[in-house]
Amino acid sequence: MGAHSWFGGAVTSRKVAANTYDLSSPRRIHVVAAGGAGMSALATVLVQQGHQVSGSDQVQSEALQRLTALGVRTSVGHQALNVHGSDFLIASSAVNAENVELVEAERVGIAVLRRSDLLPALAEMQPFVSVSGTHGKTTTSSMLAVALIAAGADPSFLIGAEVTSLGAAAAYRSGRHFVLEADESDGSFLSGPRAAALITNIEPDHLEFWGGWEQLLDGFRRFLNETDGPRVVCSDDPAAAQLGTECGAVSYGTSAEASYRMTDLRLGSQSCSFKLRLPFASLEAGSDLGQLPQQVDVHLAVPGLHNATNAAGALALVAELGYRIEDAVEGLRSYSGVARRFERRGSAAGVQFVDDYAHLPTEVRAALAAGRSGDWGRVVAVFQPHRYSRTQALFHEFADAFTQADLLVLTEIYAAGEEPREGVNGMLLFDAVRDAHPEAQVVWCADLDQAAAYLGTELAAGDLCLSIGAGSITTLADLVLPLLQSRPDS
Known about the structure:
21 strands, Mur_ligase_N, ATP-binding, cytoplasm, Mur_ligase_C_dom_sf
């Protein structure tokens, strides 16, 4: 097995023995930066599989405490001694090559792997049911896990955020399949074997990794063609629908061409519902057609057309895998979302705070549409752009993404480890919005402290304050709530 390097030059591993990736017998595994969402989830699966897992991170966190309760030997602070006795290390891509644990592993001959290196080993034990797409994959994969559990499939799952109704982002269970939120950003969504695959949508993101739009499409084409079982795509997304037609995939959505068609949509401020018409092709061989439903009524305790569509995709894949869709529908009644996906963060002085991870134009529109479906007086959006590369590539598309906000507050870009680029900053997006929509109420705040100070006096009873972005913007509610609580009108 050849050497590999991390994208961005963070880590280069030495040559690894052929059996290093074999997870069928117990291993001693150390996880560097175990407090992060992705690494914490992976550590959870590994310890539940029976491996001896240790983990470290720079600061104590709830994630580390949860791992400790599961039996992971955790430590705060990175130390050379933490890696001794390990068969191999797994490290987050955010970990610098000079990290003392990585340096020590290299010195004593312990292999350093990244998350994607282990995915094929996990899939050999339980084939993946992989959910990918530019956006919506966290929600759709979490809904799929909930639906499959309700249908009796008992799948393992590895998802990029905690699923509220399951109380975890990951688990190793006894079923035949492994639900995976499959990341296209680094090509790891092609890991397999895959027993099934779902594409939510395809938009031009992560093109620096792929080299261009056509190369990205080729990646998703491989994702479908190299899957052994059912393939499902969203018919409402042009690129996904086209690939689905090419590859013979089943489709879902609101379009008349959808195999699993959504009708009678009802969107509320805290819920949504729809009817899902089922194709005969989804019915099990030899079944009595008269005893199987032609459609099911779906009710969700989360708002927004995007959530309804994601649920339709999850249910379509449940049916295509041969499980009872009625049980899956009932299971989704209890679905209450995932962390940072239209997550309620509290209220004060009559102002409701919601946080959403949206960081692409389509995601921002969906989050604002969900906010607009409520009965708030104003929708106040606070957006922190994510990455210089993304802002540079998409600022024209972002210019039209905020039209459903009554007031927009923009901040400086969250770098996410990227180096600054000349001429690319938050004001680039501010000017784009103002030029495209001169009538819009747009306010510039250089950082979150300035934004909090402004919102502390601007927000009024009846407002929804929606913080949007994939960076530190998630802390905004924590900054503004105390300011509102101290106001005389609170």
